[in-house]
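Re: weekly structure request thread

Next one in the queue (407 aa):
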Amino acid sequence: MKTPHLVVNEIRRRLHRTWARTLICEVSASTGIESKPTWPHNFATGSGASAEISADFASTIDLTAIWRDWADRNGLDLVDRERRIGTVRHTIPSHLVIPDIDTAATVAGPEWESRIQRGRRRAHTLAERFPLLEQPERILVAADRFDDTNFDLLLRAGAWFAAHSAEGLTSRQVPLEGFHAKWLNPRHRLVAALAGKDDLGLILNHPPRIHFTYLDRDYLATGGRKHDSATVGDSFTPAYWPRVVIISENKDTAINFPDLPGGVSVEGVGKGGTTIASFDWIKQAPTLAYWGDIDADGLEILNGFREAGLQAVSIFMDRDAYTTWERFGTDVDKNGLPLTGRSPRAVPYLTARERELYEDLTNPLWTRARRIEQERIPLPTAHQLLAKQAESTTTQGENAPESPTSG
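Done, posted below.
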């Protein structure tokens, strides 16, 4: 039989999957729209069959007493089933009854109580101000970590774009009153969804740019620049045509990567690989590797790079690497907020080993660390692995970097 603690974790996982849809369903019910409820829900205590109970009867009796005491203290109901153990009938709790989302949040803890209260207010606001919004639960989830000020800005931005066109403007040129010039930059898709548009029609603030570091010791000994940058669409020729390119999402890791013959270390640009894929001298490198955090986001970025045409191998981004470095794992983000499971996205460009890890890290039932930050892995270890990969694709006797024939 499960303990109450284990079932509370199941309640939290169900809340995580259903809270936004449940709150939107409440609003739909108030407007007369029928929707399938996600609560009440009965959670099995795992009491098992009579033979299992009989095999460990003492433990079952102890846990039954624990369950009844815990349920009484929390004002919850249990569903009992009568079981015959030997010649005697016993009443054993088989399920815990959670009648509604508010009870579930109370059981799950203060953080969930606050989330449900906040989410309920916002669900009603979305229904009032955007009654034709499709899939409002997605907006609710995406804005869950917004404070009230940023949620209000989101609503105002959505309303403005629903009524106006910003075609031909950059994010900073949109005449939104009371907004910081950079507020809109990372929120295009969310605002577009709220405004009921596929795209906001904005143009880029400036052509995208990459930053990178030359790693070849012989080249650096000539006094050439170590750090460089290139802009998409601009005429550019690197100091040498790299034989090895490592794309690293952590800037410090990219800048401080150890010397490597014919090597270049490129600073990642987040999700979407089209910017880096614009440079042939990167795409055509005999050894092209991507190294990101060991987490769901890092694997999605890797998938996006390959989708953009970068045939990059990954380093330290599979189950074996996770097991090796798990001791450095974390379950909170940079703001101290918990990392949780979520619905996996389509990642057709991951290898089987990478996809296995991705499915683990997005699984709400996963109980181990959800992120191992890239910089926790020693650079010499990464350098050794990349050097071995490069060795297998480097022609014997090729000791000096080549000059590129095109940019």
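The chain has a mean pLDDT of 88. The first helix runs from residue 4 to 30.
Next request, please.
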